[in-house]
Amino acid sequence: MSYGVPAPDAGGQPAPVCPRHPDRVSYVRCQRCERPACAECQRPAAVGFQCVDCVREQAANAPVHRNVFGGVARGGTPKVTYTLIGLCALVYLFQLVVPSVTQLFSYAPVFTAGAGGVIPAEPWRMVTAAFLHSQGSFVHIAFNMYALFILGRVLEPAMGRARFLALYLISAVAGSVGVLLLSSPLQYVVGASGAVFGLFGALLIVQRKRGGDIRQIVVLLVINAVLGFVVPGIAWQAHVGGFVAGAACAAVIAYAPSGERQARLQWLGLLGVVVLLGLLTWLGVALLPI
């Protein structure tokens, strides 16, 4: 397609055109590179305008600010926390509409390795169960999401999005490992409780590292631990597994020496926790009485 040639200005020189849109005449120039920029390519600057290319270049070269635990310091909304809450809420609504989803994606130890060809091996349920909740009790999902909301708004900014998400998922799997090791093969479980207790364990470690007061956290943990043993239908095994793994992950993140190797040591430490969970899963399968 041809757009023609821009008409010359009063001095006989060709009119300036936007480099990104040669068909558009522009007498506004970028304050940084001094190239013409049409209205679509202009971005407000402290003084005048900059072109979109200079803005992108500056953003790419801007220094990355990290918090004390090595995560990228981002202000504003804890996006991972809110995404996890939204995902659990959507899955819960889907459970209400299609009740069979709960049975298809919940976890029981027997699904880790299967049982003699009668029950298939579906180890992925160790993760999916953490996004399901009891259809018969709205309190179940309400408590877990409220706890995730409170804990996530503290831990996600402190650790960074990637580390926080890793902590959450590892704790969720660890909750299933706790059920595998400490409960009967046919005990079905659903819920984010293992992951949430992992966040409790992580907050305990983070507060300890920061020198903050941990008494309120300990009291809350004791209350929830007692409820897990007293109230029927609560999988305390998932709480134990999630809490231990969450505390271990947080210790790796919080106590890794600062410096250029901090991130590498943290991710290697988290990988070590995952490997340990894999070994415990193998042991749990070997000990299943089936």
Structure description:
With 290 residues, the chain is mainly α. The chain has 2 domains: 17-62, no CATH class; 79-287, Up-down Bundle (Rhomboid-like fold). 58% of the residues lie in helices and 2% in strands. It is built from 11 helices and 2 strands; from the N terminus they run E-E-H-H-H-H-H-H-H-H-H-H-H. It has a two-stranded antiparallel ribbon.
Name the structural class.
Answer: mainly alpha
The percentage helix is 55-70%
Unreliable runs, pLDDT <50, ≥5 residues? 1-5
> Rg to the nearest angstrom?
27 Å
Number of domains: 2
What about the largest sheet? Answer: 2 strands, antiparallel
Following the backbone from N to C, one meets helices and strands in this order, namely: EEHHHHHHHHHHH
Give the C-level CATH assignment of the largest domain: Mainly Alpha
How much of the polypeptide forms β-strand, as a percent range? under 5%
Distance between the termini: 72 Å
